[in-house]
Every structure is written in structure tokens, then in C-alpha cells.
Amino acid sequence: MNTIIIFIQKAIGQGICMMYGANGEILTEKSGNLNLGVPGLMYIGGIAGLAGAYFYENGVASPIPVVGFLISLLCAILAAALGGFIYSLLTVTLRANQNVTGLALTTFGVGLGNFYGGSISKMSGGVGQISVATTAGVYKNLFPHLSTLPVVGPIFFSYGFLTYFCVIVAIVMHWFLNKTRQGLCLRAVGENPATADAAGVNVDLYKYLSACIGGALAGLGGLYFVMEYTGGTWTNNGFGDRGWLAIALVIFARWRPLNAIWGSILFGALYILYLYIPGLARSTQEVFKALPYLVTIVVLILTSLRKKKEDQPPEHLGLSYFREER
Predict the structure, then answer these.
(1) N or C: where does the chain have the smaller number of CB atoms within 10 Å of the terminal CB?
(2) In 3D, which of 214, 213, 175, 210 has the Cα closest to residue 196?
(3) In a structure prediction context, what are the per-residue pLDDT tens digits for the chain, which is 326 residues long?
(4) CA proximity to 18, closest of 299, 268, 291
């Protein structure tokens, strides 16, 4: 029983990082932007938040954990949102290719994170790792008393602030996209920007805001992994392929934030399943790691065959909008 509980906890822990990235990309793609820079934005958010906490902890005599928490949170959000803004500037205003821009942003973000992560590590006297335990402690267990309850406690109440905030974000996004006028306008921009423009919707503004907010959410995924999941430490290339799994999760969830909640837990479970099956060869372990992608491909095929409009991506996804051609 304990093994099952630990497995569920680890699956949720792995999935939250992906859910942040997926929700950020869902919001971005609803405007018609295809941002393949999610992995890079996770690195940017993670290193910015950790660097903010590190310099605060080492710059004052008696650091206050809550202040470090707020600084790291703000740094991660602003840095990743800036990444989203740069993506929008290139693709919306300068009309650069969205795929190339997104991949370039991923390359830049990963390189930036590893470079500054290594630099700060050398400053702190470590080799490849940084620790901000004072700040990271605030990100830990939000309900210490409830987490002691049998079975229910470890599964539902043993996580930190960013875990529960991620679920709240998904619920709020569902409400925003389906129950508000602004959400309707955003979806209209992604489906047919020319029609939305003719109706008086500021297409460029919606594209910019969705990319910036979506980038900030992806950055929070990186901050979650660094602060809550690994306890305030940085290891170069430590994110693995979680950023790409977040993009795959968007397809699996069929562009619905609520689906991303249970989908992220499933992806997290599949991602670590090989660790709980004894005797697997290295090659077999790699096959198990690919299970989330295989499941996504199956879902993509099934949704394509069903051809239901609500299960398809925004019609103008990945395409630049030229107002003069309206």
C-alpha cells in the first residue's frame, strides 16, 4: 500500500511541472500562436526564480523565507513573461516563422539556464548544484497537519503551494475560456482572426497577452520543479524532456485545461512507471519513458478520425495574421 501511495505522490509531482507548461501553451495556442519554446521558458523561469532567491539569501544578514519566496516567484514570472513577449514581438509584429522562433526560444532558454546555473554554482563553491533551502522551505508542504491523515493525507495534502495553485489555474482558465467575453474573443482570434478583427477585437493585443501569460505559466512550471520538487537546487539539464511532454499534453488534453489536470497525473505516472518495474533493461526503460508520447499519438489519431470540432486545435494555429489581407 505504501508503494502505491508513493507512486501516486511521485506521479502528481512529475505531472504538475507538465501541467503548468501545458496550461500556458493551451492559453497561447487558443490565440493561434504555436509556441514550441515551452521547454526554454521552463528553464528561464526556473533559473530566474532560483537566482532571485539565491542573491537575496546571500545579500542580507538574516533572510526572511517569505520574502525570498515572493522574490523568486516574481523573478520567475517576469523572466518567463518577457520570453513570451519576445516570442510575440518576433511572430506577431515581425511575422517570423512560429516554429523556428519557438525552437530558437527553447535553445536560448536551455542554454541560458545551464550557463547561469553553472555560474551561480561556482560562486557558491558547489559543482553543478545550487541550494536555496531557506526559500525552498516555504514552497513545501502547505497542509502539514492534514498530510498526516492515513492514505488521504499523503495523496491529497502533502504538496506545496505551487501544486495547488496549478490546479486552481486550470479551473480558472476553463472558466475564462468558456464563460467570459474575453475568453470568447481569445478563441475567436485563434479560429478566425480576420473575422475577430472585423468585429472590433484587437487581435495583436490578445496574441501578445496570451503568449506573455502563457509564458509566465510555463516559467512557473520551471520554478515548481526547482523549488518544490527538487527542494531549491539546480542541476544543469535537470528538466529532461518535461517541457516537450507539456506540449504533448496539450494535444492529449484536446486544448482543454480541465483535461490537463488528470492528463498530467497520467503522464507523470507513465513517465516514472519504469522505476517501479524491477528487472528492466536500459533499452526497455527508454521504451517506457516514451509511453506519454505514444498515448498522445493514439489520442491524436482518434480525435482526427472523430473529426469533432471541439476536439480539434484552433483553425488558425501556427499561421501568421496579415491584417492587410483581410
Answers:
(1) N
(2) 210
(3) 788 999 999 999 999 999 999 999 999 999 999 999 999 999 999 999 999 998 898 888 788 999 999 999 999 999 999 999 999 999 999 999 999 999 999 999 999 998 888 777 666 555 445 678 778 889 988 898 899 999 999 999 999 999 999 999 999 999 999 999 999 999 999 999 999 999 999 999 999 999 999 999 999 999 999 999 988 888 888 888 899 999 999 999 999 999 999 999 999 999 999 888 888 887 788 888 888 988 888 888 877 777 777 778 999 999 988 776 65
(4) 268
Distances from the Cα of 237 to the Cαs of 4, 40, 117, 214, 226, in angstroms?
29, 11, 10, 22, 12
* Beta bridge mates, 131: 233
DSSP-derived secondary structure for 266-301: HHHHHHHGGGGSTT--HHHHHHHHTHHHHHHHHHHH
Q: CA-based angle 188:190:192, to the nearest 5?
A: 60
DSSP, res 238? T
Q: Cα(227)–Cα(221) distance, rounded to whole angstroms?
A: 10
- Three cell numbers at 44? 528561464
3-state secondary structure string across 47-81:
HHHHHHHHHHHCCCCCCCHHHHHHHHHHHHHHHHH
DSSP string, 100-156: HHHHHHHHHHHHHHHHHHHHHHHHTT-SSEEE-HHHHHHHS-S-TTGGGSTTHHHHH
Other CB atoms within 10 Å distance of the CB of residue 86: 18
Identity (one letter) of the amino acid at 321? Y
Q: SS3 of 131, please? A: strand
**Cβ distance 318 to 95 under 8 Å?**
no
State the greatest distance between any 2 C-alpha atoms of the chain, in Å, as a whole number: 63
Distance (Å, rounded) from C-alpha 94 to C-alpha 58?
41
Contact 140, 160 (CB under 8 A): yes
Distance, in Å, from the CA atom of 77 to the CA atom of 127, rounded to the nearest integer, reads 27
